[in-house]
Amino acid sequence: MLDTVWQQCLDQLRSELPSHQFNTWLKPLGLSEQAEALLLCAPNRFIANWVRDKYLERIQVIAEGYGYDGQVAIEVRSKGASRSFTSTRSDTNDTSRSAPVVSVEAPAVAESPSTSESMPDTGVAGSSTDTARSVVVPSEGVEVKTTGSSRGRNKVQSYLNKAFTFQSFVEGKSNQLALAASQQVAENAGGAYNPLFIYGGVGLGKTHLMQAIGNEIIANNPTAKVVYLHSERFVADMVKALQLNAMAEFKRFYRSLDALLIDDIQFFAKKDRSQEEFFHTFNALLEGNQQVILTCDRFPKEIDGLEDRLKSRFGWGLTVAVEPPDLETRVAILMKKAEQAKVKLPAESAFFIAQRIRSNVRELEGALKRVIANAQFIGAPIDTALVKEALKDLLALQDKQVSIDNIQRTVAEYYKIKISDLHSKRRSRSIARPRQVAMALSKELTQHSLPEIGDAFGGRDHTTVLHACRKVKELRETNQDIREDYSNLLRTLTT
Ligand SMILES: Nc1ncnc2c1ncn2[C@@H]1O[C@H](COP(=O)(O)OP(=O)(O)OP(=O)(O)O)[C@@H](O)[C@H]1O
Question: What is the DSSP letter of 115?
């Protein structure tokens, strides 16, 4: 009976929540074996607390709807004590794991000039003076510097991008979970949430968050050995190490870290030998309570060409998504970036930019940089007229891309209906719903008035357009399919 009720709760929640939320918080839950009541078990404290705060009440209501009359509770899973309904590991994350080792030995390859000469590009090239050695991981400007006078026991520190901190990261609905998880990991590196897997589209702050964790680990612990690198660099270094017969050094270096941060691991796809090596490095780090943080442009299970055992292992810790920021967050990001650049950006201008640039934060930043450069060039303060002038090429291109015609074409293609259906009087759900979505997108993405939009949809009244906008807004909150359709269409039209 409890099994059935819990399965029903899961099915219901799956239909109510965006898939990334369901995957992150509900999928890892199991049902306690011993319990008479609906006692859920979470793989770690973080998930347990989050579910208790955000979802437990809803689970209680759903369970009661299926005839359950007890209390729903949640606890952290103890080993082997639950039956899982999903594919997650049942003995995940012993919360008693200790904090990372902080004093480390410098990699042996950095000690000997001959070794570093023999593998110049394995991520650990460097000179060997006694007082300060620099071990450069030549990707993304990452450098690991070792200092100290005695050979063999040197403190090692990596230089991450110092601008990527939690303080400079703007929180919004779209990144709330990922930020909270990252802060937890930074406070308890090598602890219960290992690996941390952050996924989401381009330019949404994955690297920023990952490096913020690295910076925080080092701020709390200046001797921690943290290395950030792009997955392509890991592959390139490994290939070099293989060619130069220097795999032992390669392994020793990576396995000696307190925290390994690898960006964009989708590039591991189809690189079998690198996956094999990474798999072993990854296991060694996890076993040693060393923190692993990974980013990817998609959910682990969706990476084609990645071994199943790696996909499954990536899910052992915590998997969190970052999504495109909403309008308020985009405005807040712009204000923050302007403040960092010590530039006065009127709220109205920030709002204008945020409304027009919606695809990702990198583009938003790029637009702001153009505006700032323009203002400095002509020596005038920023206002909306200046913004329009500075971004005019971009805006013109965008206007072309998000014309009502193009929206109709894209929506028709997406729902596999004819463009003429959108203009027609047909009222069947399969036509009326896409029509409403197309109207709402036209209102959101173009500067056209309601009557103009109505005209473009077979001469409809402006109240019909208004109704469509309201309906779609409501459906995006209650219906997962529409929510996903709308955000897919938005992405297609604005990137
Ligand atoms: N919430 C945020 N607050 C402040 N800055 C942000 C935020 N999100 C992203 N950024 C900024 O946007 C830029 C792009 O972010 P980042 O490089 O982290 O994206 P990404 O998700 O790693 O992209 P990619 O998949 O292309 O590597 C960075 O300059 C980063 O500082």
Answer: H
